[in-house]
Write a structure and sequence with these properties.
0% strand, single chain, mainly alpha, 133 residues
Length: 133
């Protein structure tokens, strides 16, 4: 198999993980952009992530309601300043600044968006690159 195909195969498995799709969905820069695609795979990844990260069913129910607010840009989430800063601010900072009325969703969004991607699957990346050599 050509080296780029090996690398792409390894990266595809990581990029399409529930954590990455949840990060994509909750990042206001992408969510509020015209090309945003909240298709079924993205929503399933987000739901999977919520189920894994939030143990309390009542808190999960609140998050589901608050996700609807985020989708519809309700309240401060749709404020023109919030929407304009979605491209410029760090996503975690944006949630901290504008998501205070959606406290459960904000807590989850900051937790997900603050995770580092560089170590995710690090061993898999290393082995993929070693195979290419």
């Amino acid at each position: 198999m050509p080296p780029w195909e090996i690398i792409n195969e390894k990266l595809d498995k990581q990029i399409h993980s529930p954590l990455h799709t949840a990060g994509y969905f909750l990042n206001p820069k992408y969510h509020y952009s015209p090309g945003f695609r909240g298709d079924i795979k993205v929503k399933r990844g987000l739901e999977n992530c919520i189920t894994r990260m939030v143990a309390d069913p009542e808190e999960r129910a609140k998050i589901e309601i608050q996700l609807d607010d985020f989708d519809k840009r309700a309240g401060f989430l749709g404020d023109p300043v919030a929407v304009s800063l979605a491209d410029e601010n760090n996503p975690s900072h944006w949630w901290d600044s504008f998501g205070f009325r959606q406290s459960e969703l904000t807590k989850l969004a900051i937790r997900i968006l603050s995770l580092t991607c560089s170590s995710y699957g690090g061993e898999h990346n290393q082995s993929a690159f070693e195979m290419v050599r």
